[in-house]
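Example record

One chain of 357 residues, shown exactly as stored in the release files.
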Amino acid sequence: MTATRTQDIDATVSQVQALQSAGADVVRIAADSTQDATALAEIRRQCSANLSVDLQENYRLAELVAPHVHKIRYNPGHLYHHERDKPWQEKVRYLAAVAQEHDCAMRIGVNCGSVDPAQQGKYDPQDSLSPMLDSAWEHCELLDSIGFTRYCVSLKDSDPQKVIEVNRRFAERRPDVPLHLGVTEAGIPPDGIVKTQIALEQLISRGIGDTIRVSLTVPNSRKAEEIQVGRQILADIAAGRVRSVIPSSQGGLNIISCPSCSRVENEAFVELAQRVREMTRYAQQHALTIAVMGCRVNGPGETDDADLGLWCGPHQVHLKRSGEFVGAFSYGEILPRLRAELDALIASRAAGSAAPG
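Predicted structure tokens for this chain:
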């Protein structure tokens, strides 16, 4: 996925070409406005890559971008953001009609941090997988019912074990549907690589998965590393060099951070994620999760389940503790405040464990 701003045509073309040169079979570009759609048309003219477009929150852009791409990706949870009174089924029928007209495939992209709210309300908040599965299955059934079969599904979480489980369960019920695999917000290398490797090894060895994506928090200039890592993981699996016995960061401090992408409103997010990892090394033995998210689209929802969550805006970083909003701080203020909150959380847990039973 490109991390440049789509309207920066030169930078986006350069990144598409770099990803393609690194071995990417599909390159995904985000479009969230008519200006993005206009830019995409020019990007298409300058690129030969197999392009997929991420519609973000504006599904109506499909008719503007479909002539220039091979695949349209939409998120069932994001269909609620525009034309809220219109049933989601009507919106999906529109997307399928546009895709059919322009010979595009589609991806139903289900993400742990932005699940269909109607599905979430049916289950215990601790059950994050069932809403994802129900959402994916019902969208597949609708597309099947109208005769649109050129689609695949992705079910992504930041926890590799959940990625394994949700995709395994989906494949048991719908083995006919192609699956796009990935660990979302895998984080900074090398931890992000290990998390991704664990999930892909376990799924691909079961015959599950048709395309993959590696999501790492790296600067724009290093985005091609995601392709190189993905290619290496596939080569290792093919050669029998599986390494799932390597312990991940689970059991100790777990830092989740999303990949840099075109939604990021301040590129200081990538450096901040690196600084969070360095600053928190003293707390490695504590079983806590810190999430560092780069945008307002998925950030608010995807920090809810973390012990401490940061989502980054253009000028401020929004801090949550156990899903509760703490405050918004400048990029210069956030690290000391995060450390104070982390120390307080560690102290409260220590006091709780020391209390007489």
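Notes: The radius of gyration is 20 Å.
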